[in-house]
Amino acid sequence: MKINNRGIQIISIPKIEERRGNLSVIENDTIPFDIKRVYYLYDIPTGSERGGHAHKDLRQFLVALSGSFDVVLNDGKEETIITLNKPYEGLLINSGIWRELQNFSSGSICLVVASEVYIEEDYIRDFDEFIKYVNRK
Fold first, then answer.
1. Which residues are catalytic?
2. How wide is the angle at C-alpha 29 spanned by C-alphas 81 and 83, nearest 5°?
3. Under a CB-based contact definition with an 8 Å cutoff, are residues 80 and 8 in contact?
4. What contacts 77, CB < 8 A, 6 or more positions away?
5. Which of 37, 103, 117, 129 is the most buried (most CB within 10 A)?
């Protein structure tokens, strides 16, 4: 499912169902980039927001492992809100997209799979700077 012309999309994660419980696997054929970093957000206080930045090169794949949260995406022209609440679906976010994570349910866990290791210079942390960046491209 494409969200906009920048290739933001919901990707189904293979799900193996059996009576002992379900299993989902994320491998390099699940997402369109090599995995360089994995981290997760948890114990997020009620009303807190995460994100609030864009990346110049890095691509991310977000999964709600538990609970739910909203991902507010902005490509500099249009804003889209996606609710993640299924551990067998993830949101691919390409570079050059502003993202904010909000409305975390109690006990929610957000898994982030990234195409690059942490490099501070890749971040755009000011929204006005982000708008200037996308308008230059």
1. 53
2. 15
3. yes
4. none
5. 103
Q: Which residues contact 90 (CB under 8 A, 6 or more apart)?
A: 10, 11, 13, 26, 31, 61, 62, 63, 84, 111, 113
Percent helix, percent strand, percent coil in the chain, to nearest 5: 10, 40, 50
Residue 28's pLDDT band, with cuts at 50, 70 and 90, is: confident
| AA identity, residue 100 | E
Neighbouring C-beta atoms of residue 24, cutoff 10 Å:
18
What is the separation, in whole angstroms, between the first and last Cα of the chain? Answer: 25
H helix or E strand, kind and range, residue 115: none
E-only strand ranges, 79-124 = 79-84, 89-93, 98-102, 109-114, 123-124
Burial class (CB in 10 A: 0-12, 13-18, 19+), 101: buried
**Would the pLDDT of 3 be above 70?**
no
